[in-house]
Amino acid sequence: MFATPAFAQAAGGGAAGAFGSFIPLILIFAIMYFLLIRPQQKKMKEHKAMVSALRRGDQIVTQGGLIGKVSKVKDEEEVEVELAEGVKVRVVRQTIAQVLNKTEPAEKA
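Structure tokens predicted for Sec translocon accessory complex subunit YajC:
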């Protein structure tokens, strides 16, 4: 019915016991950051750089699987892509998945 002295001494942990219970939670968050969040941010940054560097003549693949050549860079949001001769479509820049062939910039005379 009464607590023995050994149990009574173990019950008092104070602030050290509270901090000790948060250590696994902090470690889990750190592991999740380095394994999931950081690589995803790096991948998003690379994709943004690839999309912003698009120019006329680049051969691209859209997320829908269409392969075409950039015929005109309209604005910050969309580009015009030629899928076949005479078939041009407007594509949102963020839906471009991959650049297959990059054109070289023209040399300044």
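The radius of gyration is 28 Å.
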